[in-house]
C-alpha cells in the first residue's frame, strides 16, 4: 500500500505535465493562426511561413515539459524506493533483535525456573531435614537471581527514557573511583586482587571534563572494569587508559583474557547477550548493554575490538564539556 502511493503520485504528475504541454501547443498554434488571419498581404505570407517554426518551438516546449516531469517522477520514485528499503531493513533488524532478546530471556529464565521447581519437589513432606535445607537454599539463591535479572532489565528500560543529570563530571576521577571499588570488592570477596594499570594524562593537560550524569558514567566504567576482571585469568594485567581525542574523552579498558569470537563481537552489546565462553560465569549479560545505553544518552558511543586468545579492548567515548572542562579549545 505504501509503495503504491508514490507510483500513483508519479502518474498524476506525468498526466498533469502532459495536459500542461498540450495546453502549450494549443495556445501556441491558436496564437499563430490568429496572427496569420489578422496579418494583411505580405505579412500574412511571412506569418504562414513562420507557422511551422512556431509549431516546432511549441513541440520542443512540450518535450521539455514532459521530460522534466518524467525525470522528477522517476527521481521521486527512486527516492521513495530507497526510503522503503531502508525502513524494511530497519524493521527486519528490529525483529531480529527482538527475536534474539526473547531467545536469550527464555534461556536466562529456564535454568532458575527449573531449579526452583526441582527444589519445591524436593521439599515435600517425605523429605528429610538436610534435603529440605538444600531445597530452601536453592529457592533463595534462584529467586534472588531472578529478582536481580528483573531489576537489571527494568533499570535498562528506564535508562533509555528517564531524565539524566547534566553536570560537570571529572571522568578521570570516575575512572579512579571505579578501579578502587573493583579492587576493594575483590578483597572483600577473598579473591585475588586484580592487577589494574591506570594511565591518565597529566601533561600538557589532564583529561577534559564532560557533561552528564556522574552516577551513570560511573556505572558504565565500573561495568567495563568488572567485565574485564571476570574474563581475565588470575595474574594477567588489565590496562585502563584515558585519552583526550579532539573534543572527545576516550576511556579504554583492555584485558588479556580469552577474547571474543568474531561471530559474537557484533552482538555483545545486546541485552542478555552472553558468549559461549561466558555461560558458566555469573552474570546476566546486561552490563555491556547498560554501557551502550549510557554512552548513547551522553552523546557518545562504545566500541569493542577482540582477538581470540589475546584479549579484548573496549572504548567508551563521551564528548567533552568544552573549554571550561579543562582541556584545549578545539577549533
TrEMBL record:
Statement: the UniProt record of this protein carries the keyword Transferase: yes
SMART domains noted in UniProt: HATPase_c (SM00387), HisKA (SM00388)
PROSITE patterns from the UniProt entry: HIS_KIN
Cellular component annotations (GO), alphabetically ordered: plasma membrane
Listed transmembrane segments: 12-38, 50-71
Domain Histidine kinase: 104-322
InterPro entries membership: HATPase_C_sf (IPR036890), HATPase_dom (IPR003594), His_kinase_dom (IPR005467), HisK_dim/P_dom (IPR003661), HisK_dim/P_sf (IPR036097), Sensor_HK_Regulatory (IPR050736), Sig_transdc_His_kin-like_C (IPR004358)
GO MF annotation: an example: phosphorelay sensor kinase activity
Known catalytic reactions: ATP + protein L-histidine = ADP + protein N-phospho-L-histidine
UniProt keywords, alphabetically: Kinase, Membrane, Phosphoprotein, Transferase, Transmembrane, Transmembrane helix, Two-component regulatory system
UniProt EC number: 2.7.13.3
Signal sequence residues: none
One Pfam family it belongs to: HATPase_c
Location relative to the cell: Cell membrane
Broad enzyme group: transferase
Protein name stated in the entry: histidine kinase
Amino acid at each position: 500500500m505504501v509503495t503504491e502511493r508514490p507510483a500513483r503520485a508519479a502518474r498524476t504528475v506525468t498526466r498533469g505535465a502532459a495536459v500542461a504541454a498540450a495546453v502549450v501547443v494549443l495556445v501556441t498554434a491558436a496564437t499563430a493562426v490568429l496572427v496569420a488571419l489578422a496579418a494583411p498581404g505580405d505579412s500574412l505570407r511571412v506569418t504562414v511561413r513562420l507557422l511551422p517554426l512556431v509549431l516546432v518551438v511549441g513541440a520542443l516546449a512540450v518535450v521539455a515539459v514532459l521530460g522534466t516531469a518524467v525525470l522528477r517522477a522517476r527521481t521521486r520514485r527512486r527516492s521513495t524506493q530507497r526510503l522503503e528499503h531502508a525502513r524494511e531493513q530497519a524493521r527486519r533488524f528490529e525483529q531480529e533483535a527482538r527475536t534474539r532478546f526473547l531467545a536469550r530471556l527464555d534461556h536466562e529464565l529456564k535454568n532458575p525456573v527449573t531449579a526452583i521447581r526441582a527444589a519445591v519437589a524436593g521439599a515435600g513432606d517425605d523429605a528429610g531435614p538436610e534435603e529440605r535445607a538444600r531445597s530452601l537454599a536453592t529457592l533463595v539463591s534462584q529467586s534472588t537471581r531472578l529478582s536481580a535479572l528483573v531489576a537489571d532489565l527494568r533499570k535498562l528500560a528506564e535508562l533509555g527514557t528517564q531524565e539524566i543529570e547534566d553536570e560537570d563530571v571529572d571522568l578521570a576521577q570516575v575512572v579512579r573511583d571505579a578501579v578502587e571499588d573493583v579492587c576493594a570488592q575483590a578483597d572483600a570477596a577473598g579473591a585475588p586482587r586484580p592487577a589494574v594499570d591506570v594511565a591518565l594524562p597529566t601533561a600538557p593537560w589532564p583529561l577534559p571534563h564532560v557533561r552528564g550524569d556522574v552516577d551513570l558514567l560511573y556505572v558504565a566504567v565500573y561495568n567495563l572494569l568488572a567485565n574485564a576482571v571476570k574474563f581475565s585469568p588470575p595474574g594477567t594485567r588489565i590496562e585502563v587508559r584515558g585519552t583526550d581525542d579532539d573534543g572527545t574523552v576516550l576511556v579504554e579498558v583492555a584485558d588479556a583474557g580469552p577474547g571474543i569470537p568474531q561471530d559474537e563481537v557484533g552482538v555483545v552489546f545486546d541485552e542478555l547477550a552472553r558468549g559461549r565462553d561466558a555461560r558458566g560465569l555469573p552474570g546476566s549479560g546486561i552490563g555491556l548493554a547498560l554501557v551502550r545505553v549510557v554512552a548513547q544518552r551522553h552523546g557518545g558511543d562504545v566500541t569493542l575490538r577482540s582477538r581470540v586468545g589475546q584479549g579484548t579492548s573496549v572504548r567508551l567515548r563521551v564528548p567533552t564539556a568544552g573549554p571550561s572542562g579543562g582541556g584545549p579549545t578545539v577549533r
